[in-house]
């Protein structure tokens, strides 16, 4: 198929996060795209691009954003700059767009995981269609492909916690009760999802936030409505704070955590930024690749998901089983 997926080791002999793919462009020139991984030191051979699917820290944009070779969506670049206080040095595209990397035309497609999260799609010299998804909540905009490079955050068919549905009705019933309520949600990703849900459900009142969450939400969302600092909304406003800060709010505010976990001392509402395992399986069936490479997250779930895909006749390999390794000394 004209695609080599490989991993690099750093100078200490440890694997760099995630992987790189080598292929030839339409003019037969060799190209390397590194995916959601940290930078390679300048003294070593550089990839043609660092693709950053979104601004969560386990996708390593904090490092690769400092390279002029990085590529991500404009909103991911904004999120990285706010989160890390550094200037993004790479190239940007929209979330449903095209960008030329050398002679390769790369399409971006939204994955619905965070504001600005994008998949990347391109073809090599022999017409093999390659798609890198990053984390996915909504695969409806993703094209079919031949080589799918995707995630398995909830990819263990044998784990009860990998099956879930968003509890939209539960959230609605809390909102419909009226009055003050506080929700624990991470500042980047989950907080913007919650603001969108509140507005979609018809809530037009103020939403209180910590200042860093407020800055992210104001700069990343097109129409977030009235966002105010903590304590500024009067007695009927909604609060949105990171889960670990719920206990800092006044005791009389009803509190909920937006999570699938059950180890917080507050009632939880299941709203996820991810597909559950059934969603991941449906995504692979819909995209219908010849081979799937499961590259994220760390731990055992990529192997679990790849194993399941193979069992249903969908050829797959997990990142931990990729034996093409190049140390940083390669030239
Ligand atoms: Zn993520």
From TrEMBL:
Superkingdom of origin organism: Archaea
Name of the protein: Putative mRNA 3-end processing factor
């Amino acid at each position: 198929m004209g695609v080599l997926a490989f991993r690099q080791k750093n100078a200490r002999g440890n694997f760099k996060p995630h992987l790189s793919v080598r292929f030839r462009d339409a003019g037969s020139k060799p190209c390397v795209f590194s995916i959601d991984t940290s930078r390679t030191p300048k003294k070593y051979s550089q990839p043609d691009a660092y693709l950053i699917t979104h601004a969560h820290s386990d996708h390593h944009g904090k490092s690769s954003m400092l390279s002029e070779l990085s590529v991500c969506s404009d909103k991911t670049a904004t999120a990285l700059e706010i989160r890390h206080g550094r200037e993004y040095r790479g190239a940007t595209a929209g979330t449903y767009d095209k960008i030329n990397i050398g002679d390769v035309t790369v399409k971006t497609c939204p994955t619905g995981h965070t504001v600005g999260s994008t998949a990347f799609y391109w073809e090599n010299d022999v017409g093999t269609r390659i798609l890198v998804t990053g984390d996915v909540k909504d695969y409806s905009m993703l094209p079919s492909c031949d080589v799918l490079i995707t995630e398995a955050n909830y990819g263990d068919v044998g784990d009860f916690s990998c099956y879930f549905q968003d509890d939209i009705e539960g959230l609605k019933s809390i909102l419909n009760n009226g009055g003050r309520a506080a929700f624990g949600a991470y500042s980047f990703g989950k907080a913007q999802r919650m603001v969108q849900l509140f507005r979609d459900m018809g809530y037009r009142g103020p939403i209180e936030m910590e200042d860093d969450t407020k800055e992210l939400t104001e700069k990343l969302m097109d129409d977030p409505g009235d966002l105010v600092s903590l304590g500024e909304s009067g007695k009927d406003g909604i609060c949105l704070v990171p889960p670990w800060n719920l206990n800092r709010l006044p005791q009389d505010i009803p509190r909920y955590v937006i999570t699938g976990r059950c180890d917080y001392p507050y009632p939880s509402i299941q709203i996820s930024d991810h597909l559950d395992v059934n969603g991941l399986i449906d995504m692979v069936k819909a995209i219908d690749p010849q081979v799937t490479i499961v590259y994220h997250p760390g731990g055992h779930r990529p192997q679990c998901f790849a194993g399941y895909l193979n069992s249903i006749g969908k050829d797959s390999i997990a990142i931990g089983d990729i034996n093409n390794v190049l140390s940083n000394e390669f030239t």
